[in-house]
Amino acid sequence: MSHSLNPEPMTAKAFAPFGDVIELSGAPDVVINQGMCGRYHDLARLDFADGRAGISLFDAKARAFPYVVDMVERHPMGSQAFVPVSKVPFLVVVAEDENGTPTRLRAFITREGQSINLHRGVWHGVLAPINAPGQYVVIDRIAEGDNLQEHWFETPYVVE
Predict the structure, then answer these.
(1) E strands within the chain?
(2) Whole-number Å distance between alpha carbons of 95 and 52
(3) What residues form DSSP beta bridges with 68?
(4) d(C-alpha 132, C-alpha 35), whole Å
(5) Each residue of 102-117: pLDDT tens digit?
(6) How far is CA 147 from CA 80, 94, 116, in A?
(7) How many other C-beta atoms are found inside a 10 Å radius of the C-beta of residue 106?
(8) Cross-strand bridge partners of residue 78
(9) What is the pLDDT of residues 8-48, one digit of tens each?
């Protein structure tokens, strides 16, 4: 037996309780480089308890539907941003926290041009590019200390 999750399109409003959607929207904040480049400024709230921001590259294997979510994780010491290098949509599973337990899971599908920043302490599924491998620039906390908590579900969720 499993719980069913239906993915929804990734929008800034729907995703706001969990993090930031990083994408071009509207006019740029500033035009630079002799008018040849628009800067969309400060699109994500990086938040670290200590340490520093680091940039890593992730190379993730393809996932497909139906997709089983049997575990979520969170990073209590820092936010985590995912910026796709490949043009592959990815599934983002997030959950609310209720006294240290993930509840009310939601699933989102990104579209081309969207990146995300998960706020510090937000429960989320693993990186899941859909139907093709995906490569990502990841900006997160670099420091000593345990910054990973996992929660395994007795009854998994299935994203249809």
Answers:
(1) 3-5, 8-9, 19-22, 30-32, 37-39, 52-60, 67-74, 80-84, 90-98, 101-109, 115-118, 123-124, 128-129, 134-142, 149-159
(2) 26
(3) 158
(4) 36
(5) 999 999 999 999 999 9
(6) 11, 17, 19
(7) 17
(8) 48
(9) 999 999 999 999 999 998 999 999 999 999 999 999 999 99
What distance lies between CA 87 and its chain's CA centroid?
16
Strand bridging mode 149-159 / 3-5: parallel
Say if CB 2 and CB 158 are below 8 A apart.
Answer: yes
CB atoms within 10 A of CB 118: 23
* Per-residue confidence (pLDDT) for residue 11, from 0 to 100: 96
Residue 139: pLDDT over 90: yes
Whether the CA torsion 23, 136, 67, 64 is positive or negative: it is positive
1 pLDDT tier (thresholds 50, 70, 90): confident
Strand 52-60 relative to strand 90-98, pairing = unpaired
Q: Which of 110, 143, 129, 117 is nearest to 59 (CA)?
A: 129
Q: Measured between alpha carbons, how far is 109 from 113 in angstroms, rounded to an integer?
A: 12
For Cα atoms 11, 16, 19, give the angle at the middle one, nearest 5 degrees: 100
Cross-strand bridge partners of residue 158: 4, 68
Homologous superfamily, domain 3-159: Ureidoglycolate hydrolase (2.60.120.480)
